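Worked example 3 (structure in, sequence out).
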């Protein structure tokens, strides 16, 4: 499994803002959206394009469009924060959803919802979740996507840790992960440290 750490200076600045405990929800949202765009731009550097004709005001020339459709799959609910930042870049993309809740006592994933499109087998699929902690939710989501026919999956997460990356490598070595930080590890409650807290709670203010 390939892991890419996006170390763009702006990404590191945005990450510092969302790590800070005193950052209010509206600033957390804004900076998480910025981070999502940077992650997505890095992850799509090598997407294939096909040539198309373009008529400019002066003459015809050649242009490009993506060769395959895109499908974004946020893991509910925190993944919606990454979706909000990315979708304006490619509004024609298809948005699917998977709902996976972590059992706080066992730290195991509980899948409760999935809505996946028929086009998924021919698409470039981006799995979205701000945190890759134990890896349970990400592994289960990737399993569901493959079961539905997904052939090309890339995961975007803001903060990861060795335990989550190792879990993904064991279960889905063909799924590359793009992240802005690999933190020290997990605490006794399976939260990433130093981390940034509960991304969903901080993004939605609940």
């Amino acid at each position: 499994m390939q892991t890419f750490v996006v170390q763009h200076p702006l990404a590191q600045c945005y990450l510092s803002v969302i790590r800070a405990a005193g950052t209010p929800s509206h600033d957390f949202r804004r900076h998480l959206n910025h981070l999502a765009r940077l992650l997505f731009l890095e992850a799509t550097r090598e997407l294939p394009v096909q040539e198309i004709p373009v008529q400019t005001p002066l003459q015809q020339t050649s242009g490009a469009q993506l060769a395959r459709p895109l499908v974004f799959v946020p893991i509910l609910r925190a993944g919606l924060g990454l979706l909000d930042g990315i979708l304006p870049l490619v509004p024609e993309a298809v948005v699917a959803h998977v709902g996976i809740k972590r059992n706080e006592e066992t730290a195991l994933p509980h899948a409760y919802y999935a809505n996946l499109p028929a086009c998924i087998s021919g698409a470039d699929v981006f799995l979205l979740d701000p945190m890759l902690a134990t890896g349970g939710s990400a592994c289960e989501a990737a399993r569901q996507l493959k079961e539905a026919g997904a052939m090309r999956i890339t995961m975007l997460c803001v903060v990861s840790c060795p335990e989550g990356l190792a879990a993904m490598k064991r279960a889905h070595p063909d799924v590359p992960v793009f992240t802005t930080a690999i933190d020290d590890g997990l605490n006794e409650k399976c939260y990433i440290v130093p981390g940034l807290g509960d991304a969903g709670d901080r993004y939605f203010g609940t």
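Notes: The radius of gyration is 17 Å. The mean pLDDT is 94.
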